[in-house]
Amino acid sequence: MSDADIQNYLETEADDFLEELFELLSIPSISTDEAYAGEVERCAEWLADHLREIGVETVEIHSTDGHPIVYAETLTGSEEAPTLLLYGHYDVQPPEPLDEWKSPPFEPEVRDGKIFARGATDDKGQFFAHLKSVEAWLATRGELPVNLKMVIEGEEEVGSEHLTEWVEDHSDKLAADALLISDSSMFAPGIPSITYGLRGLAYLEISVRGPDHDLHSGLFGGAVPNPINELARIISQLHDDDGRVTVPGFYDDVRPIEPEEREDFAELPFDEEAFFVETGAPALKGEKGFSTLERLWARPTLDCNGIWGGYTAPGAKTVLPSTAHAKLSCRLVPDQDADVIADKVEKWLRELADEAVEVDVSVHHGGPPVITDRDNPIVDAATRALSKVWDRDAVFTRGGGTIPIVATFSRVLEIPTVLMGFGLEDDRLHSPNEKFNVENFYAGIRVSHQLWQELAPS
Amino acid sequence: MSDADIQNYLETEADDFLEELFELLSIPSISTDEAYAGEVERCAEWLADHLREIGVETVEIHSTDGHPIVYAETLTGSEEAPTLLLYGHYDVQPPEPLDEWKSPPFEPEVRDGKIFARGATDDKGQFFAHLKSVEAWLATRGELPVNLKMVIEGEEEVGSEHLTEWVEDHSDKLAADALLISDSSMFAPGIPSITYGLRGLAYLEISVRGPDHDLHSGLFGGAVPNPINELARIISQLHDDDGRVTVPGFYDDVRPIEPEEREDFAELPFDEEAFFVETGAPALKGEKGFSTLERLWARPTLDCNGIWGGYTAPGAKTVLPSTAHAKLSCRLVPDQDADVIADKVEKWLRELADEAVEVDVSVHHGGPPVITDRDNPIVDAATRALSKVWDRDAVFTRGGGTIPIVATFSRVLEIPTVLMGFGLEDDRLHSPNEKFNVENFYAGIRVSHQLWQELAPS
Predict the structure, then answer these.
(1) How far is residue A361's CA from residue A405's CA, in Å, rounded to a whole number?
(2) The one catalytic residue among A20, A135, A155, A156
(3) Which residues pair with B74 in a beta bridge?
(4) Which of A37, A91, A277, B10 could cross-link to A31 by cystine, CB 3.0-4.6 Å?
(5) ipTM value of the model?
């Protein structure tokens, strides 16, 4: 059956699609900051309204102790039709540092073929592409050729804290043949990709206290522990000279990279020079004995994400501060466990601390790494859909980021995951000037449409 | 000649003295922050007005490229009368962190016999004590028995940047027999002290840059240099395991502590336990092989005064930051030179940096250490004045802090310095809840009055 009617709808409505995405992007649904809780809720309501407007029959907002979950479904009468569970998140990272944005983060604008806004690629622009193909099918055919369940949450950027329990409580409702997620990147511009592995995350915060109040560095300096110096000493001991993490037992459960996978990685058209230029760093740096792709996809890390203490305003203040703090996170690979690693890191931080300071460690949200079996019919259908739209073979990749909820769905629903990202590596997600290429937004809609066709019972 | 008239005046006016000090303390003359430049100027004008009100004949405000200098003098007709140059500063440190103050820093209040306000002891309360004894003499006798010149500047907390040139330009006007400063602490409550040595200061700021913009720690972590980890590694290498500074040549010009001085230090009634309790630290920590007093007075240090980089707000953000920064300062002892040390530290910071990051170092104001000859008649007179008011022998101490201008006066005017502090070690100068004991304020006034008497030609 020709899909000319749907293709025609997609063309006619293209401008409206972008306008609607701008509306969604203009809501500052920052889940990490309590001050924006109202905006996060407003975003959930906007989405629910929008799903109803495009003709989705079942649309529900589920309250949690945190931010709400938007659930929707549109079912076909066919018994043979497979059921897909689409996951996305409507919450976004904080936009700071604000002064580095060329246009305000919540006033989306297109420059040079790119949509600039916080959340453009992570993840509003990506899941919204699927909603637009759903709209096209419902508007032209009255139904999709597959059963589609949608979960769009508002806590991905804070570790999907309440989604896990919600998924466990609604496992029957969510039953599906596969999980579909578009919250990652293509391997390179024009190279469609299926991501079969993701890194996990363990996130900790350390506070080091020396004196119990700020002291004058002249009157006390030299005779009391300085918490910044002490914190620096601790952090400096977290890696050895080969860039390996020194936490005892850190690598115990790391799955070695198989020779075959190593070859696959090496064959990918990875442009190391372009990656280097994109970072803007004076040089690349990482664990000895591994290629850049191996370091990013299959090796665990320990990075400081933030540090603060003492006087940080302009000018000179001769204070000997009371406390110093750092945020630390580990990216994890199969088969590391986030809780086990957080525990080991915490123990090591305490062990490294001098007895002249007090150390407090708290653990933020974490998430396990995942790896998906490439060999199943829905992965095959997604591969065909991607290859058709982009007119070249899709490649299999892994990702360095973390989507903790993937592991939860996988555990609770026992279904494979298809990670089909429309973003690009240079989308600057989590950074100022996050963007999503307009071309990729529209390609995402076409891939989504093609996927429903590939999965339609013949 | 009896001084009953003056004593009577001091008693009668005591309450007014405190009220006037409160007025002075309520002006937020924060010299380190450009935003407060107007308040610094207002403070200079308030002081000049006040000096005129109490009867000082010559009162001048000297503009500089920075904050103004208040100059005043009151001369006696006697050719035999010695000339003293009183130095003080009306500028104050920033009050941050504000939330740790029990009462607002610029709304002075007395609690439990202590004046709480930013600048209470450093240095408004201390130099103001001298102005009150001047007032008493002028009100009762019409003149002082000594020639008194006063320089009260507004840039002490930013390194007295413009005072040096001003002193050089006005060396004839400032000619005197000795420099008198009350901007330090007594050795202990009730133990009057003359301070004959001060540490100097070298202050630097380091910025470490990895990527040229913030990156997502999942997509880039493991393959690029993390500026926080790199900065921590640099800082951690600034001390060896014995607490010695590793900067090459750092100790080259350090004057060894003479055995006799070591004995003097050891004989002082230093309460190490009280010092320890006052810091609130879990333990004391410093350079091996030296006592606490030696570490504070006669050994140089290197402390971090501030550090910042990446995400520092509540919650977790998985950013791999572009830059990390730290403020570092060294306390210096005779015969170290601030410029030479800043230069050596800068070179060492650059040498310690990994080639995968870019390092930028800037040098803030510094100041040389000083040491004064105890053997001269004005030091003797000050010792007698202190001993009479406190009814016990004054002791000789050194100080860990820095008053850069002391070295300038000493070099340009070639006069000895009498450092006669009325503060206490627990005054929390530069920290929240800075205070000055009411008792010490009034004792300071009486010591000042006594000193003019001791120096009066017989």
Answers:
(1) 25
(2) A156
(3) B148
(4) A91
(5) 0.77
